[in-house]
Design brief:
757 residues, mainly alpha, five-stranded mixed sheet, two-stranded antiparallel ribbon, 7 strands, 50% helix
């Protein structure tokens, strides 16, 4: 009890101290990286922004996180982050920046929380360096500048960590409950991803808390039960509500939140399994992998000859992008191939791994001399916590079948924590010891500089040779000088150590700024000179990467004068699926034309639409405009189509229906009117049947249908029926013909009208 009271008194005294002046510039750096120019992103991730627009319109839509104002289908994630975004939009008005703002603030908050967590045990300089490392980890600001969930998820888990550390210090059961309940809240942000930190929470509480084993087991059991209750609370309410009184649970195959949590957003991420069974037959689903692939912006502005034939394009891409035997060297979305060194492969290493060698040396130093049976110091206990966070998450990303680069933000807190704590620990060992531990600092600097040279080498055409050679040379020189001066304790040695830390953070800082310099991608955020492409890996053949971002999809009936052939996304060779990427087939995020296809050189868009083998760089000339629409989908509307649908609406609930969310989202954002995505996010959800559709048409709920090719998942029967029982609307009445016209649903599709009595 006396120890507990002294801990609380010490914390209160610490809180009364003045603001750490060294922390101020770190926070300002984080604020700049997370907030600057977010006001230029008009739509952000259009799929989620459309949901916020819908959620603003009624509590029913708000509670269920409905994608559309009509309450037809939900988005594919739990609602908590979108509740926060909706509240932000309610306060500040509905804008791209107002839905991004909560994530940007969460990114800044994570920097502050990490400072507080590390400073208390490892010292103020460790806290400062950890906070700076967190702020400059490239994927952190890249994600925080969007309305994706992960930045808020990490902030929530760090808040839970602060509660857990307080529970250990004060030995109060209430803080244990609060910490695990916060993980339950995080589950309602991104489901099973929140549970990645559980090993760290259990291990740390067992090792660090000075209570009996009986109490430890009782407390952890109760806290886990509370966490599970909070986790499934929303799911139980939704799944127990009659299906006809709520939206369909998007991206599930059984209209269930729990199935979504443990399937699509759970085990399928680990296995990479993307096959689902439709309502009437089994076929590969167009899941998040395929849709995101077709929604990714093109890095064009290519110097390729515009008269090049489609067969030449196909041959060129097949040779360039496929590994021998049809394999893929870089994995889906540049996430590399599974294996123990995956995080060091290009496409992932430049997002998160800049300091990993230094972290490894730091772990060795922090655990040097630790005995299995203890006793453990406070530093060793908290180091164990961060190690138990780092290792399971790193293992997951090393073996997972499917994830996006921006998920790697989950690794940022433990890497930054070890970078901060390790910098101080290794410096102390360097100054005080003459044994092997004194070599950890120079070794960490040398190997980290070598990795950074490796990370930057594929980008030599974008960033030049100078920064690569500079980091390599300075890293080697500083490491060698520190090794030579190991026994000298003077101010010059201190300056050399500080210079080494600056060198190791210089290129991560530049990479963290690339979403500002080159533009970001709100659908698939990543950092790097090609950050606007959303593909994150080494630069494409685009001649000007600054202008290669924000490229819109080709709308129906709109031609472009740009026939660039590079960086096209085409269906896999031999596919009978026209643009779908079945069951985890990896093609570097690109889709190649089917062999023998009559649509040689064409790209199949969401909804199955042909797109004439290109995505014109409609935004490349607008990269400096005050507003950009980088929603990752076709984030503009065809005004002529909108005018036609509005004029001819005779009281129908839905403005029109289409196969998936790609076509629907921009119209929901623009008008706030219901647009039906018949198959949910990717078009594969078995939501609609022919009989249900007939009933909706007879009740006057929907009349117009925009279809762009073959159906997907369980929609084939519905789409066939629509085509057989509808009147085709002449394209001259609704299609724009000018390349400068506003855009409509993606692809060259057809507008149909159906009226039943």
């Amino acid at each position: 009890m006396k120890h507990m009271n002294s801990e609380v008194k010490e914390e209160r005294t610490s809180n009364k101290k003045r603001v750490d002046l060294f922390l101020v510039p770190i926070v300002l750096i984080a604020a700049f990286l997370n907030l600057f120019k977010i006001w230029t992103d008009e739509y952000a991730n259009a799929y989620y922004t459309a949901a916020v627009k819908s959620m603003l319109q009624s509590f029913h839509n708000f509670f269920y996180a409905s994608f559309d104002p009509g309450g037809y289908v939900t988005i594919d994630k739990p609602p908590v982050v979108f509740w926060i975004q909706t509240i932000s939009a309610k306060i500040f008005g509905f804008h791209g920046w107002s839905v991004i703002l909560p994530q940007a603030l969460a990114g800044i908050g994570s920097v502050l929380l990490l400072y507080v967590l590390i400073k208390r045990t490892f010292g103020v300089w460790a806290g400062r360096f950890a906070a700076l490392a967190m702020a400059l980890t490239p994927i952190v600001p890249a994600v925080s500048r969007t309305n994706n969930i992960d930045s808020m998820l990490v902030f929530t888990l760090l808040l839970a960590t602060w509660m857990l550390f307080r529970a250990v210090r004060t030995v109060k059961f209430g803080w244990v409950l609060a910490a695990f309940a916060m993980i339950g809240v995080a589950f309602n942000m991104k489901m099973l991803q929140a549970y990645m930190v559980l090993p760290a929470f259990y291990v740390f509480y067992v090792v660090a808390t000075k209570i009996t084993w009986k109490k430890k087991i009782a407390f952890l059991t109760t806290a886990t039960a509370l966490m599970l209750a909070v986790s499934v609370s929303w799911a139980v309410v939704v799944d127990s509500t009659s299906a006809d009184k709520r939206p369909y649970m998007g991206s599930s195959q059984t209209n269930s939140v729990l199935e979504l949590a443990f399937g699509y957003n759970g085990i399928n991420r680990l296995t990479g399994n993307t096959s689902v069974t439709g309502s009437s037959h089994k076929q590969p689903a167009q899941t998040e992998q395929q849709t995101a692939s077709s929604e990714t912006k093109q890095n064009s502005n290519s110097s390729a000859d515009s008269s090049q034939s489609s067969n030449q394009r196909k041959s060129s891409f097949s040779q360039k992008m496929q590994a021998p035997g049809g394999g893929n060297q870089n994995g889906m979305f540049n996430t590399g191939n599974p294996g123990p060194f995956r995080l060091f492969q290009k496409g992932l290493s430049d997002q998160i791994s800049w300091l990993l060698p230094f972290v490894i040396f730091s772990i060795v130093g922090l655990f040097a001399g630790v005995k299995f049976k203890g006793p453990y110091t406070a530093k060793q206990k908290e180091s164990l916590f961060w190690l138990a966070w780092l290792l399971p998450v790193a293992v997951f990303f090393s073996i997972a079948g499917f994830f996006h680069q921006y998920y790697l933000i989950m690794l940022a807190p433990p890497i930054a924590a070890f970078a901060g704590a390790g910098a101080v620990a290794l410096w102390s060992m360097y100054k005080q010891h003459n044994d092997w531990k004194s070599w950890l600092l120079p070794g960490g600097i040398l190997t980290t500089a070598a990795l950074q040279v490796y990370i930057m080498s594929p980008y030599v055409s974008s960033i030049g040779v100078a920064p690569i050679a500079g980091v390599g040379a300075l890293g080697v020189i500083l490491a060698l000088v520190l090794a030579i001066r190991k026994q000298r304790k003077n101010s010059l040695t201190n300056y050399l150590g500080a210079a080494a830390m600056v060198v190791l953070l210089a290129m991560p800082a530049y990479w963290a700024m690339t979403p500002i310099i080159y533009g970001g991608n709100s659908m698939l955020p990543s950092a790097g000179p090609d950050s606007s492409s959303g593909m994150g890996g080494p630069p494409s053949t685009a001649t000007n990467s600054k202008q290669s971002g924000f490229n819109g999809m080709q709308p129906p009936g709109i031609s472009s004068g740009n026939s660039s052939s590079n960086n096209q996304m085409q269906p896999p060779s031999g596919s009978s699926n026209g643009g779908q990427m079945p069951g985890g087939s990896s093609n570097n995020g690109q889709m190649q034309p089917p062999s023998g296809s009559s649509n040689s050189g064409q790209m199949q868009m969401p909804g199955g639409s042909s797109n004439n083998s290109q995505m014109p760089n409609s935004f490349s000339s607008k990269s400096s405009s005050s507003k950009r629409k980088s929603g990752g989908m076709n984030a503009e509307v065809n005004q002529k189509l909108l005018n036609y649908l509005t004029k001819n609406n005779t009281g129908e609930k839905y403005l029109f229906a289409t196969t998936d969310s790609t076509s629907a989202a921009p119209y929901i954002i623009k008008t706030g009117k219901p647009v039906m995505a018949m198959g949910g996010f990717s078009g594969s959800d078995p939501i609609l049947t022919v009989s249900k559709l007939k009933a909706m048409i007879k009740k006057g709920e929907v009349k117009y249908f925009y279809l762009s090719g073959m159906g997907k998942g369980g929609q084939s029967d519905v789409i066939t029926w629509i085509k057989e029982n509808s009147k085709e609307i002449p394209s001259s009445k609704w299609q724009s013909t000018s390349s400068s016209a506003q855009q409509g649903p993606s692809g060259n599709g057809t507008l149909y009208e159906i009226t039943l009595k």
